[in-house]
């Protein structure tokens, strides 16, 4: 017997955190009865679990890394008909992105049908690092870099310290290219951090997720993660 939210996550429906929200909202039934208690335990091999009208089936877990192009939505569907990241993955399994990248941000994005895996990687306490390359307006000086390194105040609280490095400064075009590594995953965080120090982002790309990088991939291409990479990510997240 396992907790209902864990069974839902393992079935690849969504992350465990989102599964808990669906249970509380009354969108999950077990053997035909609505369940709203998070402590409910079920036997996934015997009990009939239905999420938002869809019966859950056990799927073999899959793990993909995508080089997300700019202009693509980090979602499984879009009501406006825009391209979504799942369209780039060659599988018929119910995968979803691990976290998200803004539509106008390109780079490394993980997708899976393993809700537990996604939940671990997205949980802020595990501090999985993510490295971005940002082209920003203006020349960024050392004191402003120190602000990012110490953490900057945003409307949803002060950010954790970041690692930053100037890769290029173009005085003629009045732009800078900055490498930034963070372990948080707030909405549009990198963009908001640069805005906070007066240097709006022109272009943004995620280069690394933990030890993973985009080597060998072009925009719109993906590959399956190797078993040792999946294990290494799990180990990285819980250390």
Short description:
The protein is an alpha+beta fold and 239 residues long. The chain is 22% helix and 30% strand.
Descriptive labels:
single chain; 239 residues; alpha+beta; Structural Genomics Hypothetical 15.5 Kd Protein In mrcA-pckA Intergenic Region, Chain A; Alpha-Beta Plaits; 3 domains; 9-stranded mixed beta sheet; TruA/RsuA/RluB/E/F_N; PsdUridine_synth_cat_dom_sf; Pseudouridine synthase
Mean pLDDT over all positions: 91
CATH level 1 class label of the largest domain: Alpha Beta
Structural class: alpha+beta
Task: Please tell me the total number of domains.
Answer: 3
Main beta-sheet annotation = 9 strands, mixed
The separation of the N and C termini measures 27 Å
The SSE order reads: EHHEEEEEEEEHEHEEEEHEEEH
What characteristic shape results from the CA principal axes? Answer: elongated
Share of helix among residues?
10-25%
Number of separate strands: 17
Organism: Salipaludibacillus agaradhaerens
Family: Belongs to the pseudouridine synthase RsuA family.
Pfam families: PseudoU_synth_2 (PF00849), S4 (PF01479)
Enzyme class: isomerase
């Amino acid at each position: 017997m396992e907790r209902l939210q864990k069974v839902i996550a393992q079935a690849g429906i969504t992350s465990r955190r989102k599964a808990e929200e669906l249970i509380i909202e009354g969108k999950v039934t077990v053997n035909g009865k609505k369940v709203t208690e998070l402590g409910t335990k079920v036997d996934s091999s015997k009990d009939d679990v239905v999420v938002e009208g869809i019966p859950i089936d056990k799927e073999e877990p899959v793990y993909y890394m995508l080089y997300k192009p700019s202009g693509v939505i980090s979602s499984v569907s879009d009501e406006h008909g825009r391209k979504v990241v799942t369209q780039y993955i060659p599988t018929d399994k119910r995968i979803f992105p691990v976290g998200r990248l803004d539509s106008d941000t390109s780079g490394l994005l993980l997708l899976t049908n393993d809700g537990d895996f996604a939940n671990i990687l997205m949980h802020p306490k595990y501090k999985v690092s993510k490295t971005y390359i940002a082209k920003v307006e203006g020349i960024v000086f050392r004191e402003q870099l120190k602000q990012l390194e110490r953490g900057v105040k945003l409307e949803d609280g002060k950010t954790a310290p970041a690692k930053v490095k100037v890769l290029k400064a173009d005085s003629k075009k009045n732009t800078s290219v900055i490498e930034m590594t963070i372990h948080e995953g707030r909405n549009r965080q990198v963009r908001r951090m640069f805005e906070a120090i007066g240097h709006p982002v022109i272009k943004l790309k995620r280069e690394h997720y933990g030890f993973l990088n985009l080597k060998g991939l072009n925009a719109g291409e993906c590959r399956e993660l190797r078993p040792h990479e999946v294990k290494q990510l799990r180990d990285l997240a819980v250390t």
